[in-house]
Amino acid sequence: MHNGISLLIEILQKEKAEYEKILMLSKKETKTIQEGNPKEIEEITQKQNEILSRCEDLQKQREKVVLKIKESQEKQDITLSDLIECVENPWQRDEIIKIQKDLKRITTQQSLINRTNNALLRSNMEYVQFAIKVLQESLASNFYTPVKNSSSKTGNSSFIDQKA
Q1: Helix, strand, coil percent content, the chain, rounded in steps of 5
Q2: Average pLDDT value for residue range 62-70
Q3: SS3 assignment for 53-90
Q4: Which 8-state DSSP code applies to residue 1?
Q5: In degrees to the nearest 10, what's the CA dihedral of 157, 160, 163, 164?
Q6: Are 44 and 25 in contact (CB under 8 A)?
Q7: Which of 33, 57, 128, 142 has a beta carbon 3.0–4.6 Å from 120's, enabling a disulfide?
Q8: How far apart are CA 60 and CA 144, in angstroms?
């Protein structure tokens, strides 16, 4: 079990590092959304997806290791908290506890940032939809007005006649 625990710790540390990268990109994404830079948002999303792909690979590795540990412990299910109780080596136990706390912190922060980013994106979309509606209404009402006599200087001109 000792080798399994060491391998599990190594995998968990790698996962934590990848999730921290996603968290940093998400923080950058918040600023980018606020600045309204869709190209950079797309680049950030692509980087996040690449990292998530690596996380999936690490998760599969972790699941294999946990399965071996679970079989050696003759347990149906095993959580990180259960594992902490079973680990005899104090360094390994402390390391698992530290990783568990870090992962909880990262996931909590990520959840908050995701909510913020979703709200910002929703707000931006609502603004864009509003602007499109205003433009459409303006075009529809001004574009189809009767053509005025060019000698008339009443100030009423169609949308096309107005200066930009």
Answers
A1: 80, 0, 20
A2: 90
A3: HHHHHHHHHHHHHHHHHHHHHCCCCCCHHHHHHHCCCH
A4: -
A5: 140
A6: yes
A7: 33
A8: 62
> What predicted TM-score, i.e. pTM, was given to this entire model?
0.75
Residue 117's nearest CA partner among 20, 41, 13 is 41
Token pair for 2: 């000792």
- Asked if residues 19 and 110 have their Cβ atoms less than 8 Å apart, the reply is yes
Q: What distance in Å separates the CA atoms of residue 21 and residue 136, rounded to the nearest whole number?
A: 42
**Cα separation, 53 vs 157, whole angstroms:** 57
Q: Is the pLDDT of residue 148 over 70?
A: no
Neighbours of 41 (CB within 10 A): 17
